[in-house]
């Protein structure tokens, strides 16, 4: 009997594993550690390994499809593009079983020809483990992001020290992550509710629009969006993409995983020592959602508006001259309070009534 079985060796499983020192832990991964198709930008301060940093950035550029843009400068390198595989591999400290989990329930994880018993089971299996979670009785994140991305040759108007978010292509926007002076990652994301038919964004059209020249095959990926409310069941807990732990505005997830992992690790340690119950994490999670409800509701509501309204609101943000510090704290925020400082204050009527209404409904849904 192990103290803990972690299912999945992406960032959430690997980071959690690194924090469970003193416990008898095993990690089950069906492929390689950190092998998911990811091109991720995150805060440099959460990446503890130099060799996992591909490129650093000292500014962020918000852009609309018609190439209107605003640059938020931070005065130093704050963000970086990570090598996902290296990041995850550097973190894992337990033995890794390279097998597929076919099911799990209270106290046991089933492999194809073996059953592993444990005091605590943590499902960090990301989008690939949805069937496992459904069978174990967990709800799935309500929305799926369908992403298409590729490497292209850089062009003259791109600043390699900035990363870009583009509004107006597809429903969750697009991104440009410079890799060096010559190449960049370019991608787009579209959102679908569960049971809607999924199609991947038309990256070819966007590539032409920006004058990019393709340098690699396009890659597709899915990732879940929307916080799951109940994350603990008996001695089982879901974490990372499995729980829909994604920034509601920017879609970034790694630093949210970084923030929540120590809290989960602490509860797991106390549970194994008999000093607490796993359900304590459910309480912490709900409290986090409650405190983050206005940010979460704002994100959900904005991405739910028609594309032309999203573009209008983005241009409004550009006009208001929101401070770089505000942008930084909004990106970082989960349950922390953050203030938005703008040179020109917006009026309530600058925003569509439907946005206020959606915000209210979404907030009630999150809190209840
Ligand atoms: C293209 C793309 C771009 C992104 N860009 C950013 C970004 O810029 N910034 C940011 O912060 N985030 C970004 N994200 C999101 C971020 O990458 C994810 O939120 C994060 O990687 C989630 O980590 P995870 O460990 O929860 O899941 P995963 O990394 O998906 O790990 C799950 C692991 O579980 C394993 N697994 C699944 N099923 C089983 C099974 N049955 N048995 C055993 N193992 C199993 C999988 O093989 C996988 O290794 C991006 C995601 C994508 C796809």
* Whole-angstrom Rg: 21 Å
Q: From the helix content, strand content and strand pairing, which structural class follows?
A: alpha+beta
Overall number of structural domains: 2
Compute the separation of the termini in Å: 37 Å
Low-pLDDT regions:
none
What's the number of extended β-strand segments? 19
Helical content stands at 25-40%
Task: Quote the CATH topology of the largest domain.
Answer: FAD/NAD(P)-binding domain
Biggest sheet overview: 8 strands, mixed
The kinds of small molecule bound in this structure are: flavin-adenine dinucleotide
CATH homologous superfamily title of the largest domain = FAD/NAD(P)-binding domain
pLDDT average, as an integer? 95
Which H/E pattern describes the elements?
EHEEEEEEHEEEEHEEEEHEEEEHHHHHH
Net shape: globular
CATH architectural label of the largest domain: 3-Layer(bba) Sandwich
Query: Can you count the helices?
Result: 10
Provide the CATH top-level class of the largest domain.
Alpha Beta
Report the portion of residues in β strands: 25-35%
Question: How would you describe what is shown here?
Answer:
By secondary structure, the protein is α+β, with helices and mostly antiparallel strands. The protein folds into 2 domains: 2-287, 3-Layer(bba) Sandwich (FAD/NAD(P)-binding domain); 291-367, no CATH class. 31% of the residues lie in helices and 28% in strands. It has 10 helices and 19 strands. The strands form 3 sheets. Strands 1, 2, 8, 9, 10, 11, 18 and 19 form an 8-stranded mixed β-sheet that branches. A hairpin with a 4-residue loop joins strand 14 and strand 15. The structure holds flavin-adenine dinucleotide. Flavin-adenine dinucleotide (FAD) binds at residues 7-13, 28-31, 35-42, 100-101, 124-126, 128-129, 132, 147, 149, 221, 223, 240-242, 252-254. Flavin-adenine dinucleotide binds at residues 7-13, 28-31, 35-42, 100-101, 124-126, 128-129, 132, 147, 149, 221, 223, 240-242, 252-254.
């Amino acid at each position: 009997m192990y103290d803990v079985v972690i299912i999945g060796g992406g960032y959430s499983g690997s980071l959690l594993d690194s924090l469970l020192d003193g416990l008898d832990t095993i990690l089950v991964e069906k492929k390689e550690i950190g092998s998911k198709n990811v091109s991720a930008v995150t805060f440099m301060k959460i990446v503890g390994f130099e060799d996992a940093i591909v490129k650093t950035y000292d500014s962020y550029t918000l852009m609309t499809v018609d190439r209107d843009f605003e640059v938020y400068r931070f005065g130093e390198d704050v963000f970086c593009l990570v090598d996902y595989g290296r990041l995850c591999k550097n973190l894992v400290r337990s033995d890794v079983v390279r097998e597929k989990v076919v099911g799990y329930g209270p106290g046991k994880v089933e492999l194809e020809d073996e059953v592993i018993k444990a005091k605590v089971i943590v499902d960090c299996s990301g989008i690939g483990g949805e069937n496992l979670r459904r069978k174990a009785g967990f709800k799935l994140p309500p929305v799926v992001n369908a992403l298409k991305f590729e490497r292209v040759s850089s062009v003259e108007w791109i600043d390699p020290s900035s990363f870009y978010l583009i509004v107006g292509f597809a429903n969750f926007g697009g991104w440009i992550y410079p890799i060096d002076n010559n190449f960049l990652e370019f991608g787009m994301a579209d959102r679908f509710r569960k049971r809607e038919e999924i199609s991947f964004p038309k990256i070819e059209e966007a590539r032409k629009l920006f004058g990019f020249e393709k340098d690699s095959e396009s890659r597709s990926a899915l990732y879940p969006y929307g916080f799951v409310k109940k994350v603990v069941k008996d001695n089982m807990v879901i974490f990372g993409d499995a729980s829909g732990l994604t920034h509601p505005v920017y879609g970034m997830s790694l630093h949210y995983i970084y923030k929540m992992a120590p809290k989960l690790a602490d509860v797991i340690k106390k549970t194994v020592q008999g000093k607490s119950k796993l359900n304590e994490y459910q309480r912490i999670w709900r409290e986090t959602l409650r405190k983050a409800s206005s940010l979460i509701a704002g994100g959900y509501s904005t991405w739910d508006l028609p594309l032309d309204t999203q573009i209008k609101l983005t241009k409004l943000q550009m006009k208001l001259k929101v401070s770089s510090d505000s942008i930084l704290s909004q990106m970082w925020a989960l349950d922390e309070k953050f203030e938005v400082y703008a040179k020109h204050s917006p009026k309530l009527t600058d925003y569509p009534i439907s946005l206020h209404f959606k915000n209210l409904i979404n907030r009630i849904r999150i809190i209840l």
